[in-house]
Write a structure and sequence with these properties.
Blueprint lengths: L3 E5 L4 E7 L8 E7 L2 E6 L4 H12 L2 E2 L2 E7 L4 E8 L3 E2 L3 H10 L1 E3 L7 E3 L9 E3 L11
Parallel strand pairs: 6-9
Antiparallel strand pairs: 1-2, 2-3, 3-4, 5-8, 6-7, 7-11, 10-11
Bound molecules: iron/sulfur cluster (SF4).
Iron/sulfur cluster binds next to helix 1.
Length: about 140
């Protein structure tokens, strides 16, 4: 996500633009802060955008997607995974470090919990597809 900040020192207002990730419309939202307090939100296509803006300035969260290596008995495949809900952006590096070290053995089922409560976030890492048999076509 891109984020641009400008600070107007004459009246201590800070303007930030963020891209709402709540739905595919991806509205560009302008957030105006004064002394750290939210005073205006514009550009949102619906009321969820204002909630996203509030969250974005206090404790931003994202759903993380990645892949995990699966040992298929002599070959490896990459299993797409994602967090079952959004997690704090501050936890992303720690979570990715755990994902990179994770090795599974097949079979894997779509929706399987790959890592429960990953890094103590309270959110499970889940499989986004199934690997039922070894794919030798490479
Ligand atoms: S503000 Fe509303 S319409 Fe726009 S991206 Fe966010 S959820 Fe979607």
């Amino acid at each position: 996500m891109s984020q641009n900040r400008t600070i107007n020192s004459t009246n201590e207002k800070e303007t930030t633009t963020v891209c709402c990730t709540t739905c595919p419309k991806e509205c560009v939202i302008t957030i105006v802060l004064k002394q750290g307090e939210l005073i205006a939100v514009t550009g949102q296509g619906c009321k969820r955008g204002k909630q996203f803006a509030k969250k974005e300035i206090s404790s931003p969260e994202r759903t993380l997607t990645s892949t995990v290596i699966v040992d298929c008995g002599g070959t490896v495949q990459l299993l797409p995974v994602k967090t079952a809900a959004s997690i704090p952006k501050n936890d992303m590096v720690q979570v990715m470090n755990v994902i990179r070290k994770t090795r599974l053995t097949y079979p894997c089922q779509l929706g399987d919990v790959v890592i429960p409560n990953i890094c103590g976030t309270g959110v499970d890492l889940v499989a986004c597809r199934s690997i039922r048999e070894v794919n030798h076509a490479r």
